Amino acid sequence: QVQLVESGGGLVQAGDSLRLSCAVSGRTFSRYAMGWFRQAPGKEREFVAAISRSGGITYYADSVKGRFTISRDNAKNAVYLQMNSLKPEDTAIYYCATTKSGTVVAYARSTLDYDYWGQGTQVTVSS
Predict the structure, then answer these.
(1) Measured over all CA atoms, what is the biggest interatomic distance in the chain, rounded to whole angstroms?
(2) Cβ-proximal residues to 28 (8 Å cutoff; 6+ apart), any chain
(3) What is the structure's pLDDT at 73?
(4) Which residues are CB-contacts of 112 (< 8 A; sequence separation ≥ 6)?
(5) In the predicted model, what is the mean pLDDT of the chain?
(6) Containing H/E element for 1?
(7) Whole-angstrom distance, CA of residue 62 vs CA of residue 73
(8) Which of 22, 45, 20 lies closest to 32 in space, CA to CA?
(9) Per-residue pLDDT reduced to its tens digit, 62-90
(10) Can you tell me the distance from the alpha carbon of 62 to that of 77, in angstroms, rounded to the nearest whole number?
């Protein structure tokens, strides 16, 4: 059974930083690209960042480029999202997800490209 568990969310002020973690079990972690998405109240779930199986290739939404960094540790079966210079508009529930088998990370920007999801972790940024 594949399980993803996010942690690290919280309430911070604008300009602060947070580091989200996602622990994955039940799947050969290094065989799959990973992604982070977020969903704000009343909005659709949107792509934030993705990382290749080896961690050598990353992609970001324009809204977070230069502020967020995705990384992974295949020895620990974990993926991370370092979020710096947080803004109130970053407030959302953040989800990690594993790509479907064979998905090319360069194109993995839709929720349809992912098959397993965590339960999410709340990030709230106050102004």
Answers:
(1) 41
(2) none
(3) 98
(4) none
(5) 96
(6) none
(7) 24
(8) 22
(9) 999 999 999 999 999 999 999 999 999 99
(10) 27
